[in-house]
Amino acid sequence: MTASLRGIWRRLHAWNERRRVPDGSCSTARSDQRYFRILLTALSAAGAKVVSVAVQLAMVPLMLSALGDYSYGLWLTLQSLIGFSAFADLGIGNGAMNAISAAQARGDHERINRIVTSAVTMLTAMAVVGVAVAPVAHSWVSQRHVGGVHAPDIATGVAIFAAYFALALPLGFIERVNSAFQEGAVTNVARSGVAIAVLIITWCVARAGGSFGAICFATLVPQLIGWLAVWLVEFRRRHWLSIGWQLFDWGLARSLLGVGVLFLGIQVLSAFNWSMDNLLISGLLGPEQVTPYGVQVRVFSLVGTIASMLLTPLWPAYADAVAHGDHAWIRSTLRRSLIGAVAVSVPLAFGAAAALPFLLRVWTGDAIRTTPVLAYGLACLTVCQTICAALAMFWNGTSAIRVQFFIGLALVLLSLPLKVLVLRTHGIEWLGFLSSALIVVTVLLPAFFVVRGALASPRPDEPHSATVF
Asked: 277 forms bridges with which residues in the sheet?
């Protein structure tokens, strides 16, 4: 134990010493920098998650008392639509991350400015169209009787959501920029500050008897201001960072859009595969069967949340390592991330499966019950999904986008008929084990052959030049 603590202390000391070593001076210094930024981003993400959950819990009674059941339900519905902004940018943000990381590794500030300008220009064009929709949405809603609530007030709230959805495209791109620089901690700190600001402003508006539109304004505008503030901070920190029409590059824009469309395809396949189970259960067994399955899946989704906080910072780190040619670091980190994914997910997932009957009794009374087959099947599925997340960060960072797309497509095409068959014959009980087996066959086994070269030890005469995929 003492030796382990000494090892951890030496690593932390090495990470601290990175600040005294110029960027790019040696592979060891770059490795320490990456691990330090990964750790910092993961810890800040955990802190931001705690703040976010606390704020959400505090917002529920506040919003209910301020809006009532109907208006609060409408607000929740509109809020859920914001999640589609991940698709609205056509994958441009994801495509730009790797390009910025590569340019940053080379110290090519001019190319970074061209990438940022090209991406922001395209996103701004989309935002202009979205903002133009806001008055149309206001006019359409205001002419209708909405659940006994004053229609113009509801229309104002809908228009605010539409405008926010559009403006979030260019302003929110700063999160991708920070991620590309491996400074996701900046984004996480900003998110925590915005969450607290939203709670305070919403409380003030509610105490003042604010309308539905005013509540929508209070919950959305602080995020836009937060993004704008981070942009200003980044321009101040990086005096060379600039956006201008003269920096727009049509060829670069087309390239970003092409890569972005592939990322978009992966996102769509992932979303469809994630929502497929509930859709099939509802269609084949009835909506009432979605509840017991969905509630149990939510318990295991906590494991995925923890894994995501730990694994997401690896994406830009891999991109930086590829740009520097640090393939030994990529091999080592890929091994560690896969081992870590198993080490973290197995005890958490199977511990949750063992405790699931007790958790359901406390949470739902006797309304929802589980079976060992379903519980441990979902545990296996959680472990498989966590391993897939580790692989996805590797593939994203090394720009192996087509591999992910075709693997994801194969998973969806194979899953659909087999899940229909199992649901019709056995109900939801075996769905977890079936999904796990499908992931093993269509994702993990092909991935073994795709990345086995990356996991192979480098030859002595090629310490930094071996192909990673």
From this structure: none
Question: How far is CA 341 from its chain centroid?
Answer: 17
pLDDT tens, position by position, 73-85: 778 777 777 766 6
Q: Is 211 left (phi over 0), alpha (psi -120 to 50) or beta?
A: beta
Distance (Å, whole) CA 461 – CA 459? 5
Q: Which helix (H) or strand (E) holds 459?
A: none
CA distance 428 to 19: 53
pLDDT over 70 (residue 151): no
Delimit the domains of the chain by residue range: 26-248, 265-469
pTM, two decimal places: 0.79
φ, ψ for residue 331 (rounded to 5)? -60, -50
Q: Taking phi first (over 0 means left), then psi (-120 to 50 degrees means alpha), and beta for anything else, what does residue 286 get?
A: left
Rg (CA), the chain: 24
Residue 309, both tokens = 């906080």
Taking only the tens place, the pLDDT of each residue in 165-194 is: 888 889 999 999 998 888 888 889 999 999
**Residues 6 or more apart from 247 whose CB is under 8 A from it?**
113, 114, 117, 118
Closest CA to 379 of 436, 444, 440, 439: 436
